[in-house]
């Protein structure tokens, strides 16, 4: 079963008597005790004739402890429905159930320097480069969750679409509750990490890089708006070595000389062509010794 999800539980009592009842307990906190308040689910729908089961809904809380735990089913004739105790007529069965974390939806906001349209959003880069894409898409990014402790290993990764308004929805597989650094990679932007580990404690999380330079590790962002209201990732790491340097400039100049166009990383301003309009971004970030800053 998965945290945050609901399931139907059914118990059939063939030799039915009026007053028969059934319930299910799951040891969500794995303390070895079936709690009659927070871990009990009464099955009250149906029954009554020995052919229709008693049914009810079981909802797995988001704060349940992941892993294998106990599940108890009890049916008895009248009386209080408790996990433990004696009864004249009834039956108890114990099972093991595995509780899995639910999928994580991370709502991300970030911008890429070279794709900034000069006002409030990014260009439709994929469309400009001749790629099929949605009307709202700018480009794709890779988003990773890293261990908060050295050596900061990458634990989960997804590729998603970065929209022109800077939003991206990242659908991760089940992620255990905890703290993780958030790292964003792009085909020509400097790899950028969250300023500190973010806390994952439910099925939804969010992070906005754009509100301040300090949202990135080492304040490693550029003011794309020009007035301090929107910040973005530095462009120019064409060879993906976490530095903007002469190696990138060489790759850019080669593609300019060869009139490159289309889906190429050296198109820093995202207009679909590699030309002299891409050079100021590259040269400016080389002059400022821009590189990826992370733990």
Describe the structure.
It contains 3 helices and 17 strands. The strands form 5 sheets. Strands 9, 10, 12, 13 and 14 form a 5-stranded antiparallel β-sheet that branches. A 4-stranded antiparallel β-sheet has the order 3-2-6-7, with no helix packed on it. Helix 2 (246-257) packs antiparallel against helix 3 (279-287). The chain has helices at residues 125-128, 246-257, 279-287, and strands at residues 6-11, 20-26, 40-43, 45-46, 54-59, 67-77, 90-99, 103-109, 137-147, 154-163, 167-174, 178-185, 192-193, 198-200, 204-208, 222-223, 231-232. Strand 9 and strand 10 form a beta hairpin. It has 295 residues and is mainly beta.
Alpha carbon gyration radius = 28 Å
> What can be said about the biggest beta sheet?
5 strands, antiparallel
Average pLDDT for all residues: 95
Number of helices: 3
What gap, in angstroms, lies between the N and C termini?
36 Å
The chain-level structural class is mainly beta
| Strand runs, count | 17
Low-confidence stretches: none
Shape: elongated
Which percent band covers the strand fraction? 35-45%
Q: Which bin fits the share of residues in helices?
A: under 10%
Could you spell the SSE succession in H and E letters?
EEEEEEEEHEEEEEEEEEHH
């Amino acid at each position: 079963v998965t945290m945050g999800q609901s399931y139907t539980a059914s118990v059939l009592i063939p030799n039915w008597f009026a007053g028969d009842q059934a319930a299910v307990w799951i040891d969500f906190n794995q303390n070895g005790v079936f709690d009659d308040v927070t871990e009990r689910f009464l099955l009250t729908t149906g029954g009554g004739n020995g052919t229709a089961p008693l049914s009810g809904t079981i909802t797995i809380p988001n704060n349940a402890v992941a892993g294998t735990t106990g599940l108890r089913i009890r049916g008895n004739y009248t009386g209080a429905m408790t996990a433990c105790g004696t009864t004249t007529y009834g039956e108890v069965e114990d099972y093991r159930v595995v509780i899995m974390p639910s999928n994580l939806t991370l709502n991300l906001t970030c911008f890429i320097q070279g794709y900034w349209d000069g006002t409030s959003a990014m260009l439709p880069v994929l469309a400009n480069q001749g790629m099929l894409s949605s009307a709202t898409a700018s480009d794709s990014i890779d988003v990773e969750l890293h261990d908060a402790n050295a050596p900061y290993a990458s634990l989960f990764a997804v590729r998603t679409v970065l929209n022109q308004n800077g939003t991206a929805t990242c659908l991760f597989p089940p992620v255990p509750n905890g703290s993780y650094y958030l790292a964003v990679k792009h085909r020509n932007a400097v790899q950028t990490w969250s300023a500190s580990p973010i806390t994952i404690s439910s099925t939804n999380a969010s992070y906005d890089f754009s509100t301040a330079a300090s949202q990135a590790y080492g304040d490693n962002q550029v003011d794309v708006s020009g007035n301090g209201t929107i910040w973005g990732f530095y462009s120019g790491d064409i060879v993906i070595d976490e530095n903007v340097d002469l190696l990138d400039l060489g790759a850019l100049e080669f593609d300019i000389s060869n009139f490159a166009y289309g889906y190429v990383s050296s198109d820093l301003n995202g207009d679909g062509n590699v030309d002299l309009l891409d050079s100021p971004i590259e040269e400016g970030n080389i002059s400022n010794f821009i590189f990826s800053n992370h733990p």
